[in-house]
Structure formats: structure tokens, C-alpha cells
């Protein structure tokens, strides 16, 4: 079983999530390649794809958005999972994101690809890594800074993916 995790990140938080998912899948004898959206991807080589991005102003990062748009057909022929990485703070994620699961303007791609699952994970924000404008916006919005990623949740999502890949069933 070969699977590619394609991710885009600005400050590394999504990369670390992708790396964790890779390690967990590999512990179940699944072969995993980590890819950036600008790398060459041999689409026929993979049985399934996991795609993830940091969220910026309610959007996915442009390079992975572009990949989804240009490769909708290839993705629609495979098992696909999507994860967004973004909200910070101690409130339960459902309260923070409300109905938001995926950028609304990309909904048509979701209906074409018919993913197995679409989730949002909490993210990480570090003021010192941001540029001046971002730091200004985040400070003004009083958005919580720090690392709010929930590794147990990420692990349990990965376990569900493993189970689907191994049994063919999506519970
Ligand atoms: C300028 C800026 C805008 C952001 N906008 C959003 C947003 O609209 N929704 C959200 O949930 N998180 C937002 N975030 C938080 C990021 O998605 C979060 O820090 C994420 O973990 C970043 O992932 P990355 O390091 O892989 O890029 C924003 C962060 C910054 C710095």
C-alpha cells in the first residue's frame, strides 16, 4: 500500500503534522511519501492521498489549492483525505470552526473528489516567526498564540485512515 501525504505550510506546523501521520502509517506497514505540491508526483504510483494545509484568512495556501484544482481528476480516482491546520485557543474545535470544514470556494472540488474524510486540526502560532503585518493582525485580533495541536486527535484520525486502507471500509 503506497500513499502520498501532500502538504503546504508557511511556518512548519502542518509539516510536523504530516510527518507524524507518516510515522504512524509506516508503523502499520504502509509506505508513505511526503510531498510538497510543487514536487513531481507520480499519481499512478499511489493508492491514496492525504492532503493538508495551514489555513490563512480562511483559505488553503495557494500552491496546494492550485494542485487540487489542476489534479481534481487524478484525485477523484483515489481514496483521499483532507486536513486543515489552523485554529488556536483552548475552546473546543467545534466551537471555533462552527460549520467550517474546508474553504467554501473550493467546495466544488470536494464534490468531485468525494474524499473519505475532511477534518480541521488545531494549529500553532508563534508571533516571532511572523512578518510585521501578520504580527499586527494576530495581535489586533487577540488570536491565541502558542501550540494547540492535539496529537492524540491526529493519531486517532490516522488510525481510522489505516483501518480504511487495510480493510477497504470507511467507518
Ligand atoms: C496571518 C495569519 C492568518 C491566519 N488565518 C487563519 C484563519 O483564517 N483560520 C484559522 O483557523 N487559522 C488561521 N491562522 C492560523 C494558522 O492557520 C496556524 O498558525 C497554522 O498552524 C499554520 O500552519 P503552518 O505553520 O503549517 O503554515 C492564521 C495565521 C496567521 C499568521
Describe the structure.
With 171 residues, this protein is of the alpha/beta class. The chain has one domain (2-167): Rossmann fold, CATH 3.40.50.360. It is 39% helix and 23% strand. The chain has seven helices and eight strands, in the order E-H-E-E-E-H-H-E-H-H-E-E-H-E-H. The protein has helices spanning 13-26, 62-70, 72-76, 93-97, 107-113, 132-140, 151-167, and strands spanning 2-8, 31-35, 48-56, 59-60, 79-85, 117-121, 124-125, 146-147. Strands 1, 2, 3, 4, 5 and 6 form a six-stranded mixed sheet that branches. The chain has a two-stranded antiparallel ribbon with strand order 7-8. The protein is globular, with a radius of gyration of 16 Å. The two termini are 19 Å apart. The model has no long low-confidence stretch (mean pLDDT 96). The structure holds flavin mononucleotide (FMN).
How many domains make up the coordinates?
Answer: 1
Q: What is the third-level CATH name, the topology? A: Rossmann fold
**Which percent range fits the helix content?**
25-40%
Main sheet summary? 6 strands, mixed
First-residue to last-residue Cα separation: 19 Å
Short description:
It contains 7 helices and 8 strands; from the N terminus they run E-H-E-E-E-H-H-E-H-H-E-E-H-E-H. It has 171 residues and is α/β, with parallel strands linked by helices.
Amino acid at each position: 500500500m503506497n500513499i502520498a501525504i501532500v502538504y503546504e505550510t508557511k511556518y512548519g506546523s502542518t509539516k510536523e503534522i504530516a510527518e507524524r501521520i507518516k510515522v504512524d502509517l509506516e508503523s502499520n506497514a504502509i509506505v508513505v511519501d511526503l510531498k510538497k505540491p510543487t514536487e513531481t508526483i507520480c499519481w499512478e504510483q499511489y493508492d491514496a492521498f492525504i492532503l493538508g494545509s495551514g489555513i490563512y484568512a480562511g483559505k488553503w495556501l495557494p500552491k496546494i489549492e492550485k494542485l487540487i484544482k489542476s489534479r481534481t481528476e487524478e484525485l477523484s480516482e483515489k481514496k483521499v483525505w483532507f486536513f486543515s491546520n489552523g485554529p488556536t485557543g483552548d475552546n473546543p474545535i467545534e466551537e471555533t470552526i462552527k460549520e467550517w470544514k474546508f474553504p467554501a470556494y473550493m467546495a466544488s472540488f470536494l464534490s468531485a473528489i468525494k474524499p473519505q474524510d475532511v477534518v480541521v486540526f488545531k494549529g500553532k502560532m508563534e508571533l516571532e516567526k511572523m512578518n510585521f503585518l501578520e504580527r499586527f493582525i494576530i495581535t489586533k485580533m487577540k488570536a491565541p498564540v502558542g501550540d494547540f495541536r492535539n496529537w492524540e486527535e491526529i493519531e486517532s484520525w490516522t488510525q481510522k485512515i489505516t483501518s480504511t486502507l487495510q480493510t477497504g471500509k470507511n467507518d
